[in-house]
């Protein structure tokens, strides 16, 4: 694993925009043209195997939680628990998710799992694949596009052929680029009708969720945190025949509560970092990352060193995220290349490892300002 310079394409901005990637230069630079990570085939195999193993561990965790009814660590409402449990017992499939990994070419460690609303999908998929082919590079860990289409075909089989895609009207271009890309892959998979709307415009009529025209929503893909949706309209979700994607059981994985829960089930596992719920440790010696159970874009993350809390560059604080509680995760340094810390996002699509996207950041926490850098392997 090494970071190298590669030729810049003269028309790279136009190439990105042709594929619907509008944020290539957000905040001056996002897509880091001219650089790449080069991997060996053995390193890619290791990332593929780790992604598959982590996914299996997470599904096993959900199965155990539902079977035993042990939801006390989640802080979920009874309505949200009922939704999650019902969707798991009825075998509602998931489309995608992203594991964030610390990887230096040798050791792979899970940092967290973006199970419900991961972004960065378009650039990890068609954008870096086009970059690879334009430069004539040998290969890439990237079957995201094909697996998304296969996943939609599985989700649509025997179900309504009309899909609505929703995100918040306050969401940025990153969310909407991701949403429109997912809509396009659904159409390529054979969906007969698909449209997008603001999630704030969704209403309820005769038990159905309805769009801004009052038409029933047969199936809704929402790029919007499920815990927010459950808090805002839990009663409607409990009774509506509208099918929700991602399924509600992703509530049981889209929280950092899974970090200590996985550690309890697999203590000492080489892919995991020791993790505990804050307040459940007799002594806090050494270095730990303190993370809220529910947060996004690196918010409210700090470091404890022998019990002393330190702020971290790249993180910001929102009072909202204090309410969910915190976990402590054994500190691990991300590998540094040319002064930038690299975090590997490993995608699971249609229950299979599908590829990686790499973000790099000068700050200690990988936040919204991190750059995206493509990769290839030989």
Automatic annotation (TrEMBL):
One of its GO terms (molecular function) is ligase activity. Keywords: ATP-binding, Ligase, Magnesium, Metal-binding, Nucleotide-binding. InterPro entries: GSPS_pre-ATP-grasp-like_dom, PreATP-grasp_dom_sf. It holds the Pfam family GSP_synth. The keyword Nucleotide-binding applies. Residues 12-377 form the Glutathionylspermidine synthase pre-ATP-grasp-like domain. It comes from the Bacteria. This is Glutathionylspermidine synthase pre-ATP-grasp-like domain-containing protein.
């Amino acid at each position: 694993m090494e970071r190298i310079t590669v030729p810049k394409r003269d028309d790279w901005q136009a190439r990105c925009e042709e594929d619907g990637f509008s944020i290539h230069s957000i905040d001056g630079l996002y897509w880091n043209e001219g650089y790449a990570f080069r991997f060996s085939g053995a390193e890619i195999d290791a990332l593929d195997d780790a992604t598959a193993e982590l996914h299996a561990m997470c599904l096993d965790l959900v199965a155990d939680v539902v079977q035993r009814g042990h939801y006390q660590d989640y802080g979920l409402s009874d309505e949200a628990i009922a939704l999650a449990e019902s969707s798991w017992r009825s075998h509602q499939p998931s489309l995608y998710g992203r594991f964030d990994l610390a990887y230096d070419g040798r050791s792979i460690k899970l940092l967290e799992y973006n199970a419900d609303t991961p972004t960065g999908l378009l650039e990890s998929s068609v954008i870096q694949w086009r970059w690879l082919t334009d430069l004539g590079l040998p290969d890439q860990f990237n079957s995201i596009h094909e697996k998304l289409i296969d996943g939609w075909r599985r989700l649509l089989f025997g179900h309504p052929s009309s899909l609505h895609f929703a995100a918040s009207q306050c969401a940025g271009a990153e969310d909407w680029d991701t949403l429109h890309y997912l809509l396009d892959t659904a159409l390529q998979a054979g969906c007969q009708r698909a449209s997008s709307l603001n999630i704030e415009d969704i209403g309820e009529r005769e038990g159905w969720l309805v769009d801004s025209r009052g038409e029933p929503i047969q199936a809704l893909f929402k790029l919007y945190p499920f815990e927010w949706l459950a808090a805002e309209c839990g009663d409607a979700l409990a009774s509506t025949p509208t099918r929700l994607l991602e399924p509600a059981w992703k509530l049981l994985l889209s929280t950092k509560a899974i970090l200590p829960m996985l550690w309890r089930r697999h203590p000492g596992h080489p892919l995991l970092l020791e993790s505990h719920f804050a307040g459940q440790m007799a002594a806090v010696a050494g270095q730990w990352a303190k993370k809220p159970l529910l947060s996004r874009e690196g918010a409210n993350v700090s470091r404890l060193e022998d019990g002393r809390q330190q702020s971290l560059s790249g993180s910001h604080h929102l009072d909202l995220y204090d309410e969910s509680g915190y976990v402590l995760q054994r500190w691990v340094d991300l590998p540094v290349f040319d002064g930038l810390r690299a975090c590997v996002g490993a995608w699971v699509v249609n229950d299979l490892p599908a590829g990686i996207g790499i973000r790099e950041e000068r700050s200690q926490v990988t936040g919204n300002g991190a750059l995206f850098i493509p990769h290839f392997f030989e």
